[in-house]
């Protein structure tokens, strides 16, 4: 999160929204935010959304995700919205949506993600 310059915008049970600004060091050759950076931010939003429904002593790990990149990530600002679709005791499914917010305040969907996230308890070296 620190490397991406991402911050928490809001948290509620089963939903987390992160925000991030366009930064040149996160771009690819055309000046758009790199797909890997978008993936990392959406993965964080999805993971935190699942984590918000887990027991206090649990940790969270992503098992897999699929991302659809819908439009170039120009910015200048971005929102990453993770929402739990199917909570589970061990495995949860989370959907994520990344939007860019233009200078005029218009919001455009630029990527979607479906993530499978695991609740981890009692494992050495893995903690919240």
TrEMBL record:
What EC number(s) has UniProt assigned to this enzyme? 3.1.2.20
Which NCBIfam families does the record associate with it?
A: unchar_dom_1
> Mind telling me which InterPro entries this protein's record contains?
HotDog_dom_sf, PAAI_dom, Thioestr_dom
What is a single molecular function from GO for this protein?
Answer: fatty acyl-CoA hydrolase activity
Residue stretches making up the Thioesterase domain: 30-98
Listed A to Z, the keywords are:
Hydrolase
Pfam families registered for this protein in UniProt: 4HBT
Say which enzyme class the record assigns. hydrolase
Q: What is this protein called?
A: Medium/long-chain acyl-CoA thioesterase YigI
Domain of life, source organism: Bacteria
UniProt KW Hydrolase keyword: yes
Entry annotated with the keyword Hydrolase: yes
Against CDD domains, the record matches this protein to: PaaI_thioesterase
Q: Which reaction does it catalyse?
A: a medium-chain fatty acyl-CoA + H2O = a medium-chain fatty acid + CoA + H(+); a fatty acyl-CoA + H2O = a fatty acid + CoA + H(+); a long-chain fatty acyl-CoA + H2O = a long-chain fatty acid + CoA + H(+)
Q: Which PANTHER family match?
A: 1,4-DIHYDROXY-2-NAPHTHOYL-COA THIOESTERASE 1, MEDIUM_LONG-CHAIN ACYL-COA THIOESTERASE YIGI
């Amino acid at each position: 999160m620190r490397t991406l310059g991402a911050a928490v915008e809001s948290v509620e049970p089963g939903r987390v929204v992160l925000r991030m600004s366009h930064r040149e060091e996160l771009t690819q050759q055309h000046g758009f935010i790199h797909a890997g950076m978008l993936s990392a931010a959406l993965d964080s939003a999805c993971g935190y959304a699942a984590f918000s429904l887990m027991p206090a002593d649990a940790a969270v790990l992503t098992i897999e995700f699929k991302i659809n990149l819908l439009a170039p990530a120009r910015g200048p600002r971005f929102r990453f919205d993770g929402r739990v679709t199917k909570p589970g005791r061990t495995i949860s499914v989370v959907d994520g949506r990344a939007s860019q917010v233009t200078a005029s305040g218009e919001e455009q969907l630029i990527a979607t993600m479906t993530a499978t996230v695991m609740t981890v308890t009692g494992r050495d070296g893995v903690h919240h």
